[in-house]
Amino acid sequence: MKRIDKQKELIIDQFTKQAVPFAQILSRSNEEATKLLMRMARLNKNDTVLDVACGPGLLACALAPHVMKVTGIDLVPAMIEKAQKSQQEKKLTNINWKIGDILPLPFADSAFSAVVCRYAFHHFLRPEVVLKEMIRVAKPKGRVAVIDVFTSSAIQSDAYDQVEKLKDPSHVRTLPLTELQAMVSRSGLINSKAEFYRIVMKLEDNLKASFPKESGDIDKIRQAVTEDIGKDRIGMGACRKGKDVYLSYPIVTIVAEKA
Hints:
Layout: H1 2-26, H2 30-41, E1 48-52, H3 58-63, E2 69-74, H4 77-90, E3 95-99, E4 112-118, H5 127-136, E5 138-149, H6 154-167, H7 177-186, E6 190-202, H8 203-208, H9 217-227, E7 239-241, E8 244-257
Parallel strand pairs: 1-2, 1-4, 2-3, 4-5
Antiparallel strand pairs: 5-8, 6-8, 7-8
């Protein structure tokens, strides 16, 4: 229990600070990523969608014009505040927000026709339990989607995690693709499919949105990423374009159905 409480504290601390820069960085890749999810999950005007760990509401606000209703839940009040502002700016009336934990999800069984979680599984101490909760609140034949960064192996995950934890102490573990897919397979979901894309950003933009524990950790991150250019042992796809170093994060969208 102490470990779970500590993780919640880390997440609230980190993402209270990250609420604005997090939304700014990810908004650049949001449109195409949302189109991919909508196509894979066959979302339409009849769908009621739950966005688990919704953050600043980028996905929820992007989906809202295309579905009946979206509910977003997040542990961090600052993230929900940012999400509500985005909703107001976009004049969306079919989104509800909830501040709260996701274990358990505070919703009835079979409450949603689609349940999604994007860019959050690497923050969960028990990702398999989170997935079970997502399945519980999905209707029979409902779609469940997990979208997250992944690595190619456990060895690469270890290297990735060492760097990421310097940047974001709330990071837990990046799952290798095989583990993510095996987790979905074990869950009882059916008709699973996966598609891939990358989130590309400047290293320095990423670092500006980071809040490490120690001031010297930024230099450690910069050095580790720069030394990994052309090698990709870390799994962040580091490359140089002109004078700038870029990161190219591999993302998987896995969509399956509840039996």
